[in-house]
Amino acid sequence: MSEKALTDTFPTASAVSLFNVTKNFTQWQRDNSGKGILRNLIKPEKKVIAALSDVAFDIGKGEFVAYAGPNGAGKSTTMKLLSGMLLPTSGEISVLSMSPQKQRRELMSKLGVLFGNRTELWWDHPVIQSFEWKKVVWNIPEPLYRKNLAMMTELLDIGGLLKTFARELSLGQRMRADLAMMLLHSPEIILLDEPTLGLDVVAKRQMIDFLKKINREDGVTIIVTSHDMDDLEEMAQRILMIADGKIAYDGDFDGLRKITGNLTRVVVTTENGFRPALQNAALLSSENGVHEFEIDLAQTPIKTLMRLLSEFDGVCDVEIKKAPIEQVIASVYSSWK
Length: 337
Ligand SMILES: Nc1ncnc2c1ncn2[C@@H]1O[C@H](COP(=O)(O)OP(=O)(O)OP(=O)(O)O)[C@@H](O)[C@H]1O
Description:
Blueprint: H1 3-9, E1 14-29, H2 34-42, E2 45-60, E3 64-68, H3 75-82, E4 90-95, H4 104-108, E5 111-115, H5 127-137, H6 142-155, H7 171-183, E6 189-193, H8 201-218, E7 221-225, H9 229-235, E8 238-243, E9 246-251, H10 253-259, E10 263-270, E11 281-287, E12 290-296, H11 302-310, E13 315-322, H12 325-336
Parallel strand pairs: 3-7, 3-8, 5-6, 6-7
Antiparallel strand pairs: 1-2, 1-4, 8-9, 10-12, 10-13, 11-12
Pfam families: ABC_tran (PF00005)
Protein name: Phosphonate-transporting ATPase
GO molecular function: ATP binding; ATP hydrolysis activity
């Protein structure tokens, strides 16, 4: 598709668009037994995997989108397609009205990519040297580089790491340095594949707060994958879920909860060791007069629940909480299986 046709097909307010994208991989099957080696030589066995089949979605500029799915669902493949590292088998992809495959160079000046399990830092050099290298190779104007470096140093707390060799950094320090380097050229869109992988609570907090800030204040479009659903819910407004290479859900987190029947946690505090028996509710824990139930609001609406609870004399407090998103996702994944 030509550049013009691409802009005609995808609206300019769109940051990312996928139109019927399929990506197949060929996996050669190997059997190392004696007979297997011979068989492989005569007739190699191959398996074709549809990592993405006919995927279509659109992400607007300024959105913060979580991209989730079980292992092998196709998340990293999508990220690689969006950054031009892979070619789709069929279909069209547009990122900022550009084709990642045909206009990769141009696109990279507006895109930032971070794979949590990989580093772009020079292993045997101080962190600052990788930053300086990027400034030169990417042609980042000196004032912009200085401004971004100062901002990143402060917000990501990397001042003390700049003169340290990348190989001597801890995982959390390395991730922060990688994130800073990725942002030195002020990308409009950033793709993050498992950015919180292996981070401790403090490092994770820093990373999440920072991402929320640049999305909110600078309008940076962010697409993030993670297996930590609590992290995703905290960061993103929208969740796109992929299963077996197909989009299985696109909406907000509360909508996802509704799919699983709107499960809700109710914590009832009672006096005198009294334990209320609630119909259609599963008792999750009961300790020192605090009883936690799980109920399905689709089955027992809030009004009914409150009426039932008001009938008990010993109830002194009631707290209603959303079901943890991890549990909702686990239930969605098992229903898919
Ligand atoms: N380079 C490759 N060659 C062959 N098959 C591949 C390749 N990369 C990915 N695949 C296959 O494509 C499918 C999707 O893989 P992908 O890495 O996109 O999944 P994912 O959702 O990121 O999974 P995870 O959560 O485990 O990281 C898998 O079945 C995987 O085996």
